[in-house]
């Protein structure tokens, strides 16, 4: 019996893949789930046969949290969804080519000041990373930035996090499988509905502020671009929810993992620092410097490999009968791309569980083409290029200015973590000592 609520489902599904193969089936009530755990089978399904597997499972509770299926992440494959995704993608690409780099740099410098203000104290940086990542999205869209102590920020993220965690709870998933339960009182479900109402009121306020006060003043280009197009207000609203949920906890969790791994191998920090000093001669990096900074780029790839922060992507649905690796896959099967499993596949990666950024630098070493942290195909992470610039610049700024140390009174951070929708490190403290 598979416990879907266990702490580290990706790792459990990967253990099953070693026993049953890189494609296997799980039966959950009337739903057939197909788990894919190697880059080859994931690519076959999501890239070569993308149009067969681009759907999302329908669910009663999913509809309630996604404005009736109007979100990009939970909306099913349809002409309306394709337009929604295309318009948002091109608005984001305009940001990547335009203001994004400056927005990230500004947040990286703000983060630098926060770390200087800690003055060598041992601290948990996870909230500071969340603030930085969230400010990138809110600056691009609403032209707003928040401090960690801001009640607006706490309200928004508190609410989004509660929705994600309540929606994943068994009390609520049960309503999708057993419609009769919807007639009974269910406290977690009432809480979920309250949080969705609260979320919508908060997003509406930010959208209204933008419309009345800020839209004429230049950037906030993401919303300007969305509003110029044919999207309905509900679609624009749900885009903001998608970007805030998709773009905040993922980036913040990845930064925490990077710090955690670097505490285990401090010599990698020194290598990155030396590379930054010798290549940049004191200046801060640009994203265009990435090819001249191979050690830093290898570090980014290795953390994405070992801890793909969306380890099981988002479930896909077969929109018609199809096949994967020669197996028949009936319409409406739920497809789970186990990215964590693919990144730990011993047929592809030497010492798959070891943190070794150098694997990407060695001759004949690891191949970037086997990495799938952002998934692939029609549902490829919509924020991939935003995220890549963020991971590179935040890490570069952090390691240029600080040496990260394990506090004297503590042991090294645990590197197993806990996986819900996002794979997060167990909280740990770190000392950020300014580089001379
Ligand atoms: C979806 C990974 C950051 C927005 C996804 C998926 C993955 C992923 C694996 C699921 C794809 C699938 O269903 O096959 C990551 C990682 C990130 C990151 C590893 C950072 C380290 C971001 C950022 C944004 C974002 C910064 C927004 C700016 C989205 C959206 C979707 C998505 C909207 C839904 C796409 C769809 O259903 O078509 N992401 N993501 N993500 N991500 Fe990201």
From TrEMBL:
Entries under InterPro entries matching the protein: Cyt_P450, Cyt_P450_CS, Cyt_P450_E_grp-I, Cyt_P450_sf
Chain positions recorded as heme binding sites: 381
Keywords, alphabetical: Endoplasmic reticulum, Heme, Iron, Lipid-binding, Membrane, Metal-binding, Microsome, Monooxygenase, Oxidoreductase, Steroid-binding, Steroidogenesis
Subcellular locations according to the entry: Endoplasmic reticulum membrane; Microsome membrane
EC number per UniProt: 1.14.14.16
Keyword Kinase assigned: no
GO term, biological process aspect, one: progesterone metabolic process
Keyword Flavoprotein in annotation: no
Protein name per the record: Steroid 21-hydroxylase
UniProt source species: Denticeps clupeoides
Gene label: CYP21A2
